[in-house]
Amino acid sequence: MTGDFTASWSILSRDRDRLKIKRRESFRPFAPSILREAVSEWFEQDDDVPFMMQVYPIGKEERRLIPALTRVDGSGRLQTVV
Questions:
Q1: Distances in Å between the alpha carbon of 6 and those of 10, 11, 13, 69?
Q2: Do 67 and 50 share a structural domain?
Q3: What are the strands, taking DSSP E only, across the chain?
Q4: Fewer C-beta neighbours within 10 Å, C or N terminus of the chain?
Q5: Are 20 and 52 found together in one domain?
Q6: Are residue 16 and residue 35 in the same domain, yes or no?
Q7: How far apart (Å, rounded) are the C-alpha atoms in residues 13 and 41?
Q8: Do 11 and 46 reside in the same domain of the chain?
Q9: Beta carbons of 78 and 35 less than 8 angstroms apart
Q10: How far apart are CA 70 and CA 82, in angstroms?
Q11: 3-state DSSP call for residue 57?
Q12: Are both 5 and 43 inside the same structural domain?
């Protein structure tokens, strides 16, 4: 019984930390890694981002194809691969 309470508490604590302290969205999608030459086919901005440090808008038509990679604002944290 105590183990169940502890697990539930840590989940609630994690969600509180994510929303209030770290100011993160409740759902954090996966970050897409994409071949450098294919960036312009999926993102509205074409750039070289080797270290996943930029967030760019995903093309409107492409968002429905990759919902697990799309944030609520339609963007994705991009990492380009050579």
A1: 6, 9, 10, 31
A2: yes
A3: 33-35, 54-57, 75-81
A4: N
A5: no
A6: no
A7: 39
A8: no
A9: no
A10: 22
A11: strand
A12: no
pLDDT digits (tens, 9 = 90+) for 6-33: 444 555 566 666 666 666 666 666 788 8
Tokens of 43: 């993102």
* Pair of tokens at residue 22: 């770290």
Same domain, 46 and 20: no
Element spanning 42, H or E: helix 39-42
Residue whose pair of structure tokens reads 């969205």 in the numeric block:
25
The dihedral formed by the CA atoms of 50, 52, 53 and 58, expressed in degrees to the nearest 10? 110
Q: Is 52 left (phi over 0), alpha (psi -120 to 50) or beta?
A: left
Owning domain of residue 10: 1-25
Number of domains the chain is built from: 2
User: In terms of domains, do 21 and 54 share one?
Assistant: no
CB atoms < 10 A from the CB of 6, how many?
Answer: 10
